[in-house]
Amino acid sequence: MSWKVAASSVTGSSHANRGESGQDFCRAGSIRIADDEFFIGLVADGAGSTANGGRGAELACETTYSAIIDCLRQDGDISHITDEVVRQWVTQSRDAIAAEAEGNGRKVRDYACTFLGAVAGNGHALFFQIGDGAIVVRDGEDYQTIFWPEQGEYANTTYFITDEAYLERLNVLHAGSSPEEVALFTDGLQNLALSFAQKKAHAGFFQPLFLALRNDPASGFTDFPGQLRRFLLRDDVSARSDDDKTLVLAFRHQG
Amino acid sequence: MSDNMYLDQQPMAAVTFAENPEPRCPCLLLLDTSGSMAGEAIAELNAGIKSFYTELQSDSLAIKRVEVALMTFGPVRVISEFNTAECIFDPELVAEGDTPIGEAIRKGIELIRARKEQYRANGISFYRPWIFLITDGAPTDEWQSAAALVREGEASKSFAFFTIGVNKADMKVLKQISVREPVKLQGLKFREFFQWLSNSMKSASRSNPGDRIQLAPPLGWSEI
């Protein structure tokens, strides 16, 4: 069993028009331990109102990515990872953000970002999330969200890893099976990928993307990440959301 | 082979998007139409509102997201329920009656509450509502309970409440009603005020999660 993983992050026109760089970040890949291959996907969205949200997003992803790899190398079984361990990963990332903020004479909240993660392999999976954006997995012919995006009362509010009560905002879910398809994305894609009236994932968004990933030859001759990037920058996508957009796709196959 | 060619070039062409209602950006105007507004003041106010709607209509996003409601006093009347600027609106307000500011605020806050409930029931996300009170006088009714509601609403972030004084408005009372510093309108520059308001609403209606919504400084229309 192995994973095909693709990820792309693009700057939304609302930032690009102001000459700002994007505030999203993602880290995704797979790691082989003994006979199992594990998928690790992390995405984070730095708050638009902050100067360093993008850096916060990067620190959150990189710190937790290393922690997950260390954890799997010690014990290559996801079912042994407790909620407490997930809280430690997130706390370590928040500490790394706080340390850099302090070093630069800034406040932790200047680095505010959402944080979503998925780990899958050896017949198990683990998901966690603070704030908006979503993780979607295939369920038969349908697609379902793991957690619904957590928004505050208003359309421009959400929760961040830098909040005081970040552990109360942290959602964790363990699954006794490994999904065949996993997608993680930031809120820039939320209105295209999720139906808010029905409160469910929009299958028409995910099916063609996973089909394309599935059909992509593993030879490396096609530029799948480039195609994904061009898709995220497509006019009809930008017309629906001027925010930064990040998408991670992972497909599990035999062999 | 041809299949692969197709996939290489257009692998994501078949993606469809979920249809979602636009998030709404509600704005309530509480407008003084008491007798003292008669003449040039009410004419300028009418012209300002008209240009406000025209401005919002010229913006492809604001026209779908910004919802304006109009209430006048006195007597307290709902001139327009919350609605997007898609329909052209010419209010032609007439100056008459006294200045029941207390009642106008209480009914206005109720209008906001009811609208939020409708949004929630329909799965529509929304931004924090703005309330603008514009008056050229002082309350002729009990206003202390209304001021308490404004303080409560501001503290719980239920809405943001702004006051604009015109001519001989009692700025001292306005200061007691609003948590935010009241602003004095320069002469009868209603048009400039509404231009500023439409710009502010356009930018607020574009904000994304994590953005802080900030009003531009009230330049060009206020005595600041």
Describe the model.
The complex is a heterodimer of chains A (255) and B (224). In chain A, 50% of the residues are buried. Chain A is globular, with a radius of gyration of 17 Å. Chain A is 32% helix and 30% strand. The model of chain A has no long low-confidence stretch (mean pLDDT 92). In chain A, helix 2 crosses helix 3. Chain A contains 8 helices and 12 strands. With 224 residues, chain B is an alpha/beta fold. In chain B, helix 5 (144-155) links the parallel strand 4 and strand 5 (160-165). In chain B, helix 4 (101-121) packs parallel to helix 5 (144-155). The longest helix of chain B is centred in the middle third of the chain and has 21 residues, at 101-121. Residues 1-8 of chain B have low confidence and may be disordered. Classes of the chains: A alpha+beta (255), B alpha/beta (224). Chains A and B meet through helix 5, strand 10, helix 6 and helix 7 of A and helix 1 of B.
In short:
The complex is a heterodimer of chains A (about 260) and B (about 220). Chain A has about 260 residues and is α+β, with helices and mostly antiparallel strands.
Keyphrases for this structure?
heterodimer, A: 255 residues, five-stranded antiparallel beta sheet, B: alpha/beta, 6 strands, disordered N terminus
Q: How are the secondary structure elements laid out?
A:
The complex is a heterodimer of chains A (255) and B (224).
Chain A: E1 2-10, H1 13-16, E2 24-33, E3 36-45, H2 53-74, H3 83-103, E4 115-121, E5 124-130, E6 134-139, E7 142-145, H4 166-169, E8 171-175, E9 181-185, H5 190-193, E10 194-195, E11 200-201, H6 203-215, H7 224-232, H8 235-238, E12 245-253
Antiparallel strand pairs in A: 1-12, 2-3, 3-4, 4-5, 5-8, 6-7, 6-9, 9-12, 10-11
Chain B: H1 2-9, E1 25-32, H2 40-57, H3 62-65, E2 66-73, E3 77-84, H4 101-121, E4 130-135, H5 144-155, E5 160-165, H6 171-177, E6 183-184, H7 190-204
Parallel strand pairs in B: 1-2, 1-4, 4-5, 5-6
Antiparallel strand pairs in B: 2-3
